[in-house]
């Protein structure tokens, strides 16, 4: 069960954020509305939400998931693979320390963005991507072991982040997209395959029995509901334009 979430409001500079989506420039006013509804959804799931102010110097800073990993045992501040995002770590450090006074850190030449990390119980799958390298993943696994947890590296070639193509919904249920459909690391899970047409919905989020699902993907929504989950749709169109998904917008613990 989760009790808290940390989010950061989108900044006006988000229109200059990193993206390969080719879906157009985000509408800042609409992004604000969607972010506000996202916070409402978190609260509906029973979370106390800490809202951080926008950072105009960092266009992608609303995607707080990438700059820290919070586990059941502590916090680890990352070292993002995208150079333009590395300053975000310093900007969130004091907030993390309010909850976890002694966080651990990933150091160069290691790179980690926590959008590449999926938690299943006490184990953490770490995707190797353009944003997370082997040195960073090895550091992360070492720090997880220090906390009494475990981690493993996942090879992949098609996804921006691991959780672009995976979402663990608890109870052994795993949403998958693309190369994750048949990935051997996840053969023991009940895999719900999300089609290419609705691939964005592969990033959905389980919170205290409810699954947050991006709005506008009815087939994925029905598949999740068929598993017996309560669902809550959240409009995400402006964040999708920046390659950001539902999990990216919060740290949940």
Strand content: 15-25%
Number of helices: 5
Number of strands: 15
Overall 3D form: globular
Helix fraction bin: 10-25%
Q: What is the element string, with H for helices and E for strands?
A: EHEEEHEEEHEEEEEEHEHE
Largest sheet: 3 strands, mixed
Widest sheet: strand ordering: 2-1-15
Query: Helices and strands: which structural class?
Result: alpha/beta
Mean pLDDT: 97
Task: Note poorly predicted spans.
Answer: none
Span from first to last CA?
Answer: 8 Å
Radius of gyration: 17 Å
List keywords for this structure.
single chain, alpha/beta, globular
Quick gist of this model?
By secondary structure, the chain is of the alpha/beta class. The protein is built from five helices and 15 strands. Helix content is 22%, strand content 24%.
Structural commentary:
The protein has 253 residues and is α/β, with parallel strands linked by helices. It is 22% helix and 24% strand. The protein has five helices and 15 strands. The protein has helices at 28-44, 87-99, 134-146, 218-226, 237-240; strands at residues 4-8, 48-52, 68-71, 74-77, 104-105, 117-120, 123-127, 150-154, 166-168, 173-176, 190-193, 205-207, 210-214, 230-234, 251-252. The strands form five sheets. Strands 2-1-15 form a three-stranded mixed beta sheet, with helices on one face. Helix 2 (87-99) links the parallel strand 4 and strand 5 (104-105). The protein starts with a strand and ends with a strand. The mean pLDDT is 97.
């Amino acid at each position: 069960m989760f009790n808290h979430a940390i989010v950061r409001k989108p900044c006006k500079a988000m229109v200059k954020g990193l993206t390969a989506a080719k879906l157009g420039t985000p509408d800042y006013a609409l992004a604000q509305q969607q972010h506000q509804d996202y916070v409402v959804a978190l609260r509906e799931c029973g979370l106390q939400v800490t809202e951080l102010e926008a950072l105009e110097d960092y266009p992608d800073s609303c995607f707080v998931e990438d700059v820290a990993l919070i586990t059941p045992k502590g916090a680890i501040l990352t070292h993002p693979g995208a150079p333009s995002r590395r300053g975000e770590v310093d900007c969130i450090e004091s907030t993390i320390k309010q909850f976890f006074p002694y966080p651990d850190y990933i150091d160069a030449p290691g790179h980690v963005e926590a959008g590449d990390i999926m938690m299943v119980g006490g184990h953490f799958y770490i995707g190797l991507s353009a944003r997370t390298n082997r040195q960073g993943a090895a550091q992360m696994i070492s720090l997880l072991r220090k906390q009494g947890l475990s981690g493993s590296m996942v090879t992949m070639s098609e996804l921006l982040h691991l959780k672009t193509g995976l979402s663990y919904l608890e109870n052994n249920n795993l949403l998958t997209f693309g190369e994750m459909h048949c990935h051997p690391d996840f053969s023991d899970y009940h895999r719900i395959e999300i089609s290419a047409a609705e691939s964005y919905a592969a990033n959905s989020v389980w919170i205290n029995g409810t699954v947050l699902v991006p709005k506008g993907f009815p087939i994925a929504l029905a598949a999740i509901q068929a598993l017996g989950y309560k669902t809550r749709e959240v409009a995400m169109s402006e964040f999708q334009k920046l390659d950001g998904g539902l999990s990216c917008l919060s740290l949940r613990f």
